[in-house]
Amino acid sequence: MSKKGTPYEQVVADICxxxxxxxxxxxxxxxxxxxxxxxxxxxxxGLVGGVRYSVLIECKDFNPQSTGKVGxxxxxxxxxxxxxxxxxxxxxCSNAGFTAPxxxxxxxxxxxxxxxxxxxxxxxxxxxxxTVYTRKITVPAESIRAEAELTSPGPQPPxxxxxxxxxxxxxxxxxxxxxxxxxxxxxxxxxNGRLRCGHKFLTPLVFATAFGDIEVAELNxxxxxxGAWCRHEVTIDxxxxxxxxxxxxxxxxxxxxxxFQIRNLDVHAGTFVNRPPDYILAKAPPLAPGESDMRLLMxxxxxxxxxxxxxxxxxxxADRNLILEGLDQSHYTSTPGYVHPx
Length: 342
Description:
single chain; 342 residues; alpha+beta; Trna Endonuclease, Chain: A, domain 1; 2 domains; eight-stranded mixed sheet; seven-stranded mixed sheet; 6 helices; 39% strand
């Protein structure tokens, strides 16, 4: 037996059908549970790494102004239904958002919290409006220092030699320093402090300098940075996909015309905050195919003068990892009075 369902349920089912790893999408059917029939707004079978799993999506087409956000009670109800129907991944879909207690419980019990995105589809009555946090960071060029651990014996650089002048494979090391610093700042939700990052090579590399070639076993890079967190109220939309309220990411269905929008965002403005919520600081998994992240970053740093030397591939596995562990909490806190250069 099936039910017609709301237009919102229908568009959620249509979005699900557009993903390549989804099959057996059903909308508005009923299934027998241990205590009688239970309805399923949208359900489908997914496939990840050759393993099939069942998904149930409860659709809440709430009015943000009158009905408000989805509360914790709905999360509890779906948690009960997922056990009755033996569902692998239960999800609630609402463009109105979720209360803080609902988000907290959903994270704790493993229930997804998403919104439907489909530009121009009249079945979606309410746009997704959410709070996102941006980082603005400055890295002074004079704060960047690089030290080389040389193999011995071999030519030694003169006192106070600047490694920015050395090259590898014909490319300036300074470009790699800038590249590496930017990648570290992207990978870690930090805005303030001074870091020292070691980079050990699988085998010593030969760098060219004005006084001759040097053989380097390890590069140590030190730099200071200051910055701030800013809060923004934005509107999020896409041609075809979902928005994850917890992970602050969108996932787009494959297609040549896929578009993604963040409206009402002025990256040069925003409300200064000392520190964002803890979930913003949590370690984020790598982006999956088709995903976009809302955690935006502006870095004021020297501009590379040419191509980046291919040093990453020569690093030992531990030093290829960009995630920094055990940092002091001050690194995550905005610099008082910070102003980002324009």
